[in-house]
Amino acid sequence: MTPDTIFNSLDVSHYIYLSSVLFCIGLFGVLTRRNAIVLLMCIELMLNAVNLLFVAFSSYMGDSAGQLFVFFIMVVAAAEAAVGLAIIVMVYRNTRSTDVGLFDKLKG
Amino acid sequence: MKELTFLKDRSGHIKISKMLLSLLGLPPAFLILSFITILCALYVVTNSNPVYSVLALILTFFSISAHYVLLNAQFLAVVNLIVYAGAIMVLFLFVLMLLNLNKENEPTIKTGWYVAAAISAGLLLLILAAALHRSSESIMQNSAAEIGLVKNLGKVLFTEYLVPFELSGILFLAAMVGAVLLGKKQSTEVNSKSDTEPSEK
Amino acid sequence: MNILLIILLSPFLGFLFSGIAGKYLSEKITGWISSFSILVSFIISLQVFMGLNGGNSVYESTVFTFLSVGDVFVDFAIQADRLTSIMMLVITGIGFLIHVYSIAYMHGDAGFYKFFAYLNLFVFNMLVLVMGSNFLMLFFGWEGVGLCSYLLIGFWYRNAEYGKAARKAFIMNRIGDLGLLVGLFLVIANCNSLNYDDVFAAAQTGKLSTGLITAICISFFIGAMGKSAQIPLYTWLPDAMAGPTPVSALIHAATMVTAGVYLVVRCNVLFEMAPVAQQLILWVGLTTSILAALIGLKQNDIKKVLAYSTVSQLGLMFIALGVGAYSAAMFHLVTHAFFKALLFLGSGSVIHGMGGEQDIRKMGGLKNHMPLTYYTFLIGTLAISGMPLFSGFFSKDEILAMVFTENPVVWFLAVCSALITGIYMFRVFMVTFLGGFRGTEDQKNHLHESPSLITMPLLILAVLSLVGGLLNLPELFSHEHGQWLKNWLAPVIGKSQDTLHHPSHNTEWILMGIAVSAFLIAWVFTRNKYITKSAVPESDEEINGIARWPAGKFFVDELYDACFVKSSEKAGAFLSKSDSGVFAGLMDWVTSLISWVSDLLGKVQNGRIQYYLLYMVMGIILMLVINIFG
């Protein structure tokens, strides 16, 4: 298949649906999973869904700004993953657990 | 009217499976890839073993990279693979192994919570879809096939988006410093403390 | 004008001084400064009195505007016309004597300074009452003296019985005050003013209907009933004897209880136009007079006898008011103030000498131990019983003469009341002072004449009781100098008395003779019973037969208790319980509801980020819905 034929039948709306589905699956995971690391992974999933949408729009509009923004999102995602994991390791060292349900010292 | 020439193979006969696939009016590549993506994402979210979740996520990234290729974003496809699947996920695996969490012992979550989360996510999905599904009508189909190439991306990146680029460097610096500092082994660890017992399961 | 203010403020300053600084100063200083403040008022009142020579002259002073609502303006304004000046002299003069008396009588009491503070406050309020130039000032003083009466009756507050008596006085006064208030409301609604001048002018020019005036007068009389202890609101006065004797002398004999009489005399213009009200006053006064006299026959507490005697004499004054003899009532008011204060102070001296004993059955033969008290008390007794040439004789005779021309039946009953008065007064006098001593040995050793600060006022009052009759000699005796008080008060009440018929000279001689014979009968009867036969009033258990009725005060207190007091107490207890139960419970329920809600809301912040994330998602959904589809 040539890219032309894809564009004939594939609308950006389909990518919107796909991206939304991925985003919401990631959201479900964030809300549901108790393991902190898996939580971060679900956040990465959400970010990727957004990336996909950006790229789709960039292709359909012919504007490379979308792809560059994906670039920067990846930068941020990488930095955040690094620091987030470092924090999780530290928390684990202090409490021997990565269950986010147990970290409720700020309650009340 | 859609072109269905791609359904005919060299012999001119229409392949049934491809026809079935194209009944939705979508190219089969997109369908298969989407299917894989969504399946792997679900696996990430539902599986109780975190290592399996990591692996499923890597598969998801692969399929998303394939999507990028479909969309003429070749450079990003490769970068996605290298950065996400290759670096970030490996980092996740490292940490998982470090913390020795391959056996998942999360406590059971109340069903009500699942229901609430599912409803929230479902609602959000519906709303997003409903809000955005008409936006395609105002977009011009401008298939510029070269915008995904490294050369063109680089040109825009280092001219228009130079400042964010430099700032992302500073961001990385900060993240590095932070990660290193946070990751240092501390002099007092949990073994020498006695007041962390309650937080253990 | 400004001297009026001095008269008013001097006792008030004395009140402030005694109340604030009296605690830290010696008794002598507090007592004398308080008495001095009254003396200042008395001297200035004398000056005012002597300045009111020509006709209808009046001192006036408006201090400030009390309230101005719509077209009604009420000022804090005082005045001194002839009627007021008489009252002022009585109040400040007798007040001063009683202050001096109290310095010795209340010696050693822990609340000495408080007593003088209250006394000064009382004099201030009484002066406001009589010196006001509008009904609001009168009401102000009216309430103020009621308050001071309460404070002073319950002065020895540690005794619960005294506190009850004080409350009884206050509540009964309050019931009467309701009548007074209704009258004031009627006045202000129809005359748009509370000034005496405006109201009386409005009545005289026919702006007010007779029915309205009658209603106003009856309302005022209800107020007077409460303050001056007429039936049915009289039972507080005997109980008020729980207060120290100087209080009984000042408030419940000479001044406060005469406020009702003053009110009626002040409003003589109105009462003249409401014959129905006057009839009411007449019969109420008569009934009270006889009833109280009968009760007094069988009382054995020296102060209670005098209390019922006061009620009875007030009844007599109201009889005079009922027939329109206003100056006669004022005359009797003044002489009664003299001899009743004398009698009360004398009884105080007796109680002081007996070390606190008040039962006359335990006294006797005090003549030898307390001669001064004996002679002054004798003079007081003779005055009240109507011994010829004493002050009481002239004032009572004046009233009886006026009553005879209007209503002979009432006159006859009033003479009976006078007879009974003589009997019980002589009874008390003879049982207390003559015969042999019936008390204990300790009391006998303790018996002594009272110090001079007590006996001096007694002497002064005794002289006044003797010569007080000169105020208003009947025309029979002296054509040029007689009827001085009546003529003096003529500018204030003259027109109202024009309708009165003075009995002819012959009739008046006969009436006087009848009164003298009543006096003699009383004297002979009691002398026979209590001196010749040396009878002693029986103890409480020995009373039987018809004597039980007056001895039991005709069981009026018990009647009131059953009719009103018990149901009020029950209602009060019920409301108090429902207040604490229902309303407090309601408040508690509201607070617990709020606590519950806040607890519930507090659970939202459980510190777990996944909950927070869920709330965030819900918020985002809501925002999107509103923005996109709203």
CATH topology of the largest domain in chain B: Four Helix Bundle (Hemerythrin (Met), subunit A)
**Element-by-element helix/strand order of chain A:** HHHH
Strand proportion of chain B, as a percent range, falls in under 5%
| Helix share bin of chain A | over 70%
Largest interface: A-B, 84 and 98 residues
Largest sheet of chain A: none
CATH fold call of chain A: Helix Hairpins
Oligomer: heterotrimer
CATH class of the largest domain in chain B: Mainly Alpha
Identify low-pLDDT runs of chain A. Answer: 1-6
CATH superfamily of the largest domain in chain B: NADH-ubiquinone/plastoquinone oxidoreductase chain 6, subunit NuoJ
Q: Mean pLDDT of chain B, rounded to whole units?
A: 80
Number of helices of chain B: 7
What do these coordinates show?
The complex is a heterotrimer of chains A (108), B (201) and C (630). Chain A has 108 residues and is mostly helical. Helices cover 79% and strands 0% of the residues of chain A. Chain A has four helices and no strands. Chain A is elongated and about 55 Å long. Chain A starts with a helix and ends in a 13-residue tail after the last helix. Residues 192-201 of chain B have low confidence and may be disordered. With 201 residues, chain B is mainly alpha-helical. Chain B has two domains: 1-104, NADH-ubiquinone/plastoquinone oxidoreductase chain 6, subunit NuoJ (Four Helix Bundle (Hemerythrin (Met), subunit A), Up-down Bundle); 144-183, no CATH class. In chain B, α2 (28-46) runs antiparallel to α3 and α3 (50-70) packs antiparallel against α4. With 630 residues, chain C is mainly α. Chain C folds into three domains: 1-133, no CATH class; 134-551, no CATH class; 558-629. In chain C, 73% of the residues lie in helices and 3% in strands. Chain C has helices at residues 2-21, 27-51, 82-105, 112-131, 135-153, 160-191, 196-204, 210-227, 236-239, 245-254, 259-266, 268-272, 275-297, 302-323, 326-353, 371-385, 391-406, 408-433, 441-446, 452-467, 484-488, 490-497, 505-532, 548-551, 556-602, 609-629, and strands spanning 59-69, 72-80. Chain C has a two-stranded antiparallel sheet. In chain C, β1 (59-69) and β2 (72-80) form a beta hairpin. In chain C, α13 runs parallel beside α18 (408-433) and α18 (408-433) packs parallel to α23. The mean pLDDT of chain C is 86. The chains are: A mainly alpha (108), B mainly alpha (201), C mainly alpha (630). Chains in contact: A-B, A-C, B-C. Chain B binds chain C through residues 116-117, 120-121, 123-124, 127-128, 130-131, and chain C through 614, 617-618, 620-621, 624-625, 628.
